[in-house]
Amino acid sequence: MTEIKGLCEPRFAAVRAALAASLGKDDVGASVAVYLDGEPVVDLWGGYADADRCVRWERDILTGVNSTTKNMTALCALMLADRGALDLSAPVAAYWPEFAAAGKENVLVRHVLSHTAGLPDLSGLTAVEDLYDWENVTSGLAAQAPVWEPGTAAGYHALTFGFLVGEIVRRITGRSLGEFFAEEVTKPLGADFHIGLSAEHDHRVAPLIPPPSLTDEYAASAPPGPDGVARVGTGAAIRVKDANSVAWRRAHIPAVNGFGNARSVALIQSVLANQGTAGGVRLLSPQGCEPAWQEVFRGEDRILGTPMCWTAGFGKFGNTFGWGGWGGSLVASDPGSRMTVAYVMNQMIDRDQQEDNRGMEIIMAAYSGLH
């Protein structure tokens, strides 16, 4: 039996059992957290921080959560909207004038947040390193024409989401999204989550482990499109070895390069499930949270190839909203129950090879503790 450490209120014992089962089967190391009314009721971790199972997964281990980062980027936009600095119904070009080029004058902020802006890909990218040049990427997006009429269709903006939202934040605040997030979100909450990771934290990082039978050349990809052709969101395939590189940690890619653990993910997102506060700190008004679960688009997602409901920054699933990352991490919030559940791990699973129910089982176990 893998040793599991941390806090778990007795009524959430099923969450501990689900983590233990996962560590006994698919997981190498993982953390899970449940926040209720903005306070932790589960904060558990166990297993190993390395593929060789030599280094124990300790309380303050961090790992790359890939697209679970999008939840954090969206929160920054909702905070600016709540303050009256950003209008979700305004054209992006009201904040970023160059963006009006190539027929994008009617792209609204909410289109960008809901993956309906028609900019799912970055044209002209050939290498992962191209993503590290903020100015180049954002000026390229400003010049690009939308692939569909904005607002009429959705297509998951795997990488462009962070550049688009991040540049809007930068134009309004004069700060990068990572800086705004650090100063306005993680600092007041005391949350250990980083968009772009500084060297002082490198010793705490548990590298991502490629799926069983695959190597660190394993790359993120989107499912085949309607034409049957598999499409990657960029001309540059992002491999596990890229996501584990120091260059990736230092970069500023706010759709995908956040580093944290389940405790920090759940703490931050619990603000949205708990009327704008967590741990006694208020980041939003109760009304300011509502765009997180108000439907903007419902229908087939052209990139994911599946029916989706998108809100202003999140996927909506029944009464919950949130999103997950390549490999398996995820967060889900339920404003009705004022609960947020997060799962962060280092062992990736390739959904083409096997089902990945790890995060879902944690969420279902958390719900069992409410009754």
Helix content: 25-40%
Helix/strand/pairing category: alpha+beta
Percent of sequence in beta strands: 15-25%
- Radius of gyration, CA atoms, in whole angstroms: 19 Å
Give the overall pLDDT as a whole number.
94
In this structure, how is the largest beta sheet organized?
Answer: 7 strands, antiparallel
Q: Unreliable runs, pLDDT <50, ≥5 residues?
A: 223-234
Order of helices and strands: EHEEEHHHHHEHHEHEEHEEEEEEH
Number of DSSP strands?
Answer: 14
Distance between the termini: 28 Å
Strand arrangement, largest sheet? 1-3-2-14-13-12-11
Layout: helices, strands, pairs:
Elements: E1 4-8, H1 13-25, E2 29-36, E3 39-47, E4 63-64, H2 70-82, H3 109-113, H4 134-143, H5 160-173, H6 177-189, E5 194-195, H7 240-243, H8 246-250, E6 258-260, H9 262-273, E7 277-278, E8 281-282, H10 286-289, E9 297-301, E10 306-310, E11 315-317, E12 320-324, E13 330-334, E14 339-345, H11 358-368
Antiparallel strand pairs: 1-3, 2-3, 2-14, 4-6, 5-6, 7-8, 9-10, 11-12, 12-13, 13-14
Helix pairs in contact: 1-11, 2-5, 4-5
